[in-house]
Amino acid sequence: MKKIISVKNLTKNFKVYHKKQGLIGSLSAFFKRKYETVKAVQKINFEMNKGEIVGFIGPNGAGKTTTLKMLSGLLHPDDGEVSVLGFIPFKRKKDFLSQISLVMGQKSQLWWDLPAIESFNLNRMVYNLSKEDYKTSLASLVEMLDAKDIIHRQVRKLSLGQRMKCELIASLIHNPKILFLDEPTIGLDVVIQKKLRKFIKEYNEKYNATIILTSHYIGDLEELCKRVVVINDGILGYDGDFGSLIKKYAKLKTIKLVFLKEVKKENLQKYGKIIDFEPLKASLEVNREKVGEVASGILNEFSVDDLNISEMPIEEVVRRIFENGNNE
Amino acid sequence: MRKNIDLIIQYIKLNLQTELTYRSNLIFTFISAMTYVFVFVLSLKFVFNYVPQIGGYNYDQLYVILMLSQLWWYANVLVARKNFQYIAKAINNGTLDYHLLKPYSFRILTPFLKFDFRHLMPIIITVFLLFIKLDFSSIGILQWLGAILFFMNGVLVAYSITSIFTSFSFWVGRNNSIFDISLEMPDLVRIPIEFFPFIVKGFFIFFVPVIIMVNPTFQILYNNMDYILLAEALIISLVLFFISEFTWKYGLKNYTSAN
Ligand SMILES: Nc1ncnc2c1ncn2[C@@H]1O[C@H](COP(=O)(O)OP(=O)(O)O)[C@@H](O)[C@H]1O
Ligand SMILES: [Mg+2]
């Protein structure tokens, strides 16, 4: 079967100029500039099938956004080949653009001074939708996102979460076959993050849309993506099953504890590897399958003020992946 | 085409709606824009109290060329300046992204992106002020058509130049100087061609083409055509238009879409 997205040796460098601090730095930069090349994406290869959801993870500055921008046609690649739906994205053919969408957590396409519905309506014309198609699509999105009340409010006055819902509606109104989501849940509270993830899943199932989403947090992708791609410093280090990634490189979770009464280190040791200890505070590394068991054990044995379970930081996972790669 | 027209209308509507949410002070913009014209007309009147004409031009003629140049300037602000200022900023902060991702002809929409209603009013008033001095009985239909064509040609020249300079933002980053320099333009634009000394004439036709902005329209209205200048105006306009398309396309390749 023909792949819906295929990327070969994709490469992008940025030239940034370096300036020393202060006025003197600015002055000297005015006369003589020092340029530095940032290798944002280096010879990346991957392919995707229709209907797949793939998660891109990597720390900040890894090259995730740059990759999505090349896939959607915003940036001209320096080298390599990209094909999306059989098009070369950078040519930005109308037929191509009307079948994709890129949503960026940090940028907005909505008209800030007007209610979001006006931006939707503008997109109806931009994408040549019939009135009926538009109505059906809008109604379905509004319902899925539970956004009936907010689309008539001035965008400027919406909370970040509400705005993100509107951003998604504006981007999906034309029912794109491919959806690129760049950190769509960044800065949102946990409840809304969960809702949006559920929505993305539903959308994928309902329309068989192909979706790439990025995150610098593993937990974001757990419920959504069977397959993940890990990049760091522009290099692709892992492409495969989410489960095996976890098994191989992110077996552990961290439990952070705050106690009401002082505890003894020895008593805590049996629960996991202690990575941080003060009489009233501790951090433990625990196998992810055992987290529930361990947490309830601790809650029974000690008087706990606060308990917090988190994924391994992405930097740590990435370090392990790339170390492992070098050994093989 | 139909789609483009619908989109243009929609953009104009949305801009009007935005304007209305802020109830921006139409009167205020209007007063400041018109004060300039009235001060100029008054000083012109004052000078003509002492001399019957300047360089072969009488009061009415200089008045007409003044109004034409004002009209040209407002049109330029409306279709080029506002929009390209917005685009230059969008290139720098990466907000051009969403325009580039849309399946529409961005270049056709450009003049309407930030359509500013506050400038419609001075335009209407200026047309009125222009018409009260024109001798309608001496201007035939062909002259009207020619005048309108060459007026639009003058606006197109300004538009293309602004576009070319805006494209430079793709390489050099923030780039406001073009907008500052162009503020001085109306002063040069309203000078009749004969007032330019021969040695700088060529410069102001080909390099800083202020002479072709409104002089052709003016000549046509007074049936006093310099056909070489008219031809030059059309050719320069065409050349600049193609250069602007080229610099835009080429600039886009260098778009870095800042985060
Ligand atoms: N427009 C740009 N100009 C210069 N450098 C950039 C630009 N965009 C990204 N970069 C650099 O490229 C690298 C990758 O960035 P990005 O793709 O945004 O990473 P991520 O999305 O994974 O956080 C970073 O080092 C970043 O500083
Ligand atoms: Mg990013």
How would you classify the quaternary structure? heterodimer
How far is the first residue's CA from the last residue's CA of chain A?
31 Å
Total strand count of chain B, please? 0
- Compute the number of structural domains of chain B: 1
Radius of gyration of chain B: 19 Å
Task: Report the principal-axis shape of chain A.
Answer: globular
| Cα-atom radius of gyration of chain A | 23 Å
Helical proportion of chain A?
25-40%
Content-based structural category of chain B: mainly alpha
Identify every distinct bound molecule in the structure, by name, code or SMILES. adenosine-5'-diphosphate, magnesium ion
Helix proportion range of chain B: over 70%
**Helix/strand order of chain B:** HHHHHHHHHHHHH
Overview of the molecule:
The complex is a heterodimer of chains A (328) and B (259). Helices cover 37% and strands 30% of the residues of chain A. Chain A is of the alpha/beta class and 328 residues long. In chain A, the strands form three sheets. Chain A has a six-stranded mixed beta sheet, with helices on both faces. Chain A has a four-stranded antiparallel beta sheet with strand order 11-12-10-13. In chain A, α4 (116-126) runs parallel beside α6 (160-172). The mean pLDDT of chain A is 90. By secondary structure, chain B is mostly helical. Chain B has one domain (2-252). Helices cover 73% and strands 0% of the residues of chain B. Chain B contains 13 helices and no strands. In chain B, α3 runs antiparallel to α6. The two termini of chain B are 33 Å apart. The relative contact order of chain B is 0.13. The model of chain B has no long low-confidence stretch (mean pLDDT 88). The A-B interface holds A 14, 65, 69, 72-76, 92, 94-95, 97-98, 100-102, 104, 106-107, 109, 111, 113-114, 118, 121-123, 125-128, 154 and B 3, 6-7, 10-11, 14, 17-18, 21-22, 94-95, 97-98, 100-104, 252-257, 259. The structure holds adenosine-5'-diphosphate and magnesium ion (MG).
